[in-house]
Queue: 3 jobs
Job 1
Amino acid sequence: MEDISLWNAIMSVQIQAKNSENAVGFFNSLLQMGLEPDNVTLLNLVSACAQLNSLTLANSVMSYIIRKGFDKDLAISNALIDLHSRCGNICIARKLFDGLVKRDALSWSVMINGQQPFWLVEQGRAVFKSMAEHGITPQMKHYACMVDLLGRTGNLTEAYDIVRGLPCKPSTSLLESLLGACRIHGNVELGEKIAGLLSELDPENSRPHVMLHNICAAAGRWTVFWPTSSAEMR
């Protein structure tokens, strides 16, 4: 089997089935057969490494990619940034990001999203703010990454300020993410505001009602205040 596209397909199937060790094994097999991997092969390999969450393997794969010159491919570089962020090696992820000759929207997303632990919130803020310095207009997914980061780390007021300052209507997924953070951190007042915004966006969606009831119940409040005007949601 000397067609690299067939190997790519096999690796992809293994990754989708969460059999990433098998995917890595197939990669080793194709190398032993003398086949040359292409960009798709290496994207599959990085995806497999991300599932396995092995820093040692991530470093080995990165070395191979750099040695073969595939790090010049932006999609592969983005995948490596995401891989090292997931494995907890934020320093390497940031070095890869800073070394990019060109960045696309995904580059910024994976870098912002990688700043998850509490002590890295400031770095996440810095990356987000530097987008403007590079002439990049944040898209909804960038705002969503920042809101998710702030929400996870308990910076709910700052996250809500971003939502209020959005140049367009927030997405349902963004608001549900922030509402979930309100549940985790027990912020009933902000949860009521976010639930009201969700109800305005999608009146038929029952999830905000359920989530808000759970937030209130966890706080020992069984009477739910449901905002009915924009003023009450500010």
Job 2
Amino acid sequence: MEVMVCSDINGLRSIILMIMLLLILWSSTTVSSSSSTGINSTSKDRLALMAFKHGINWDPLGVLSSWNDSVHYCQWIGVNCSSHRHVDRVTALNLSSYRLVGVLMLTDNSFEGTFPINLTKILNLEYLNLIDNKLQGKFPAQVGFLSKLQSLGLFKNYFTGSIPASPGNLSSLLQLGLWENSLEGSIHEDLGRLTNLTRLHLDNNKLTGTIPYSLYNLSSLLETDFLSNKLSGNIHPDLKLTHH
């Protein structure tokens, strides 16, 4: 997952959104068990916090300087941990008003389970990339609520079912990457409503039918890839095909 954070008057709201995303992701998905990864749950929490820290490129108050191995991560500034049932598990982050700026990336982390639907309640989200994980289940139709989303990357997961019409509501979307899943059914005509879309990658799925004519009208498209599906018909040369 990737979230842009700005230092303007919306900076506080943006950093709160970043924190919410981190917490929601970790509370809504099941990570690999310790038997398969050799890493226990508390170590996973520490790694998540360090991933957050490494994504910050401006820390004017030096608040994250305490985030090091000299003290337990539960004693780091802004980190709250449980002292009851799940000892040393992170329960909350409070880093508001510290004017942090950066990008949070949570890809290739072996997250398992279904898509964390709570993410779709963060309506100012601009970048959502849960790439190269082990997420499964149906494609989350609720992403259509994220009207400010510019990049949606869910490739290299195990999503099944059809691609719903709802992504067609994402008028700000620039990139849609869904390759290397197990998506089925036809490509919905409503994707042709994404008039700002520049990159569309749906290759290596199980899609059927023909490429909708609505996509041919998207003059903004710079890259498309439909390779390794079960599509029929000819692909019009106007589509700018690329392959991974």
Job 3
Amino acid sequence: MRVSVKNMTLGVGSYLGIIGGGYWWALSQREDAAKKELGEKAEDEQGNPKQFSEEERLAIFREGASGYDKQIGTDETVMGLNLLRRWLLRQAKGKVLEVAGGTGRNLEYFPQSVELTIIDLCEGMMAETERKLRKSRRGDVTFGRMDVNRMSFPSRTFDTVCDTFGLCSFEDPQQSLQEMERVCKDDGQILLLEHGRSHYQWLNAILDKNSHRHTARWGCVWNRDIEKMVREAGLEVTSMTRWHFGTTYLIHAKPGKREGDQMKREDKGGDGKRKGDRRRREDEGGDGKRRGWWAWLSGRRPTWTKQQP
């Protein structure tokens, strides 16, 4: 039986329309339910949008860690975000740092040849990463809890620094970007996959109106101007594409000019060694040894875990 092009086009169009319409209806129903459920969490006593602290957002991540992958899996597949993750992270090379690694959704997308380090501030998310690593075929992976705004790594350590959907959750995203730049080698690369403001004001108005509810549900702020933050942080953007009406950002960048750049907050001493980098947030003890964020936070080193082959 021969099928005409017209009938085939009509059939495919109808199928896609039914699937798309059904998904949109299910999504709208879920959003309506979320608005009712999150009303108290997202608003203060006067009914105004609530401003969430870092501790409150961390609590949201911690509570949702075990079910996070299942909850967002369908949405990411429909939107093609898995393909964007794969396309971006296959460019990673050498010594790689992933910040805000979350539940380890990117593990399968990194080349097997890289030396991978993963950090996240949420213990619940890191527990999910550890569970996946035990089941994976990846070799030597280092992972642990660390604040991206106060990383203890020496400057110019990594060939690739990457983050996927983390800038929406950081307390100070511009400082986070500057820290990512600090630990990246001069000839290294910074890979970002983020979501934020749109090309279109009508969509930005929707994002702004519902931002507090989205934060109450997911812990992230979805209406930040990602492009502006990246450029103001001093990174040199080598390529950028935007998807989904401009709300998804795929960015390839590299460290900007380091010397004499006030954005980097660095000086050099007469001996040629870098000094005074305030962004490192490191103290020095009487013995002259560097101490990272744990020195003032808890007085001890964080626990690092090595995943062996």
